[in-house]
Task: structure prediction
Amino acid sequence: QVQLVESGGDVVQPGRSLRLSCAVSGFSFSDHAMHWVRQAPGKGLEWVAVISYKGNNEYFADSVKGRFSISRDNSKNTLYLQMNSLRSEDTATYYCAKDRVTFGIGEIDYWGQGILVTVAS
Amino acid sequence: AIQMTQSPSSLSASVGDRVTITCRASQDITGDLAWYQQKPGRAPKLLIHSVSTLQSGVPSRFSGSGSGTDFSLTISGLQPEDSATYYCLQDCNYPYTFGQGTELEIK
Result:
């Protein structure tokens, strides 16, 4: 079955960097776009970024544009989120998520269990 | 960015009731609208995509409808396990945007 396992969450100081990873299994990773979505404590869902199945197209939320980057290694079935210049408002549970569409970008159908990132001094 | 206005923010209903949650987009999103269910401490689960297509394994008491800017999720014959927060998502334009969520309590 589809599995997405995030790692790399931590407590970091404002202005520092952190990289999240997401190891996937149970589907053909290289055929699907992948997303990151976050949820601040007690708040709603916020879409963060998407990367196309080939890794040649990326789109970001305005709140993270220029600070976050998304990448993937199709040979390792792994998705990444590089987060730079972290702010307190980036504190959230970060979900790695699979796109439902094959060879395109659509909606999310499967989610990881989430990983907590806390930005605090 | 497209704004998704979801209502109500919370509601309470009884087992067997029919409830409707709505999402209004700030511009036409054609048929690119999905609905998710999230239970406390859990990842969201896809219920419906493309406005009205039920995801595999989702009970048929869930249904979606709408077009253009106005969309709805209906749950017919509420069950205790439907207690959750529900979100809409537009995947028409980047950045994707979620509604604020609707917390559904089963009395």
Summary: The mean pLDDT of chain B is 97. Residues 54 and 60 of chain B are 8 Å apart (CA to CA). Chain B has no helices and eleven strands. The interface with chain A takes residues 1, 32, 34, 36, 38, 43-46, 49-50, 55, 87, 89, 91, 94-101 of chain B (CB under 8 Å).
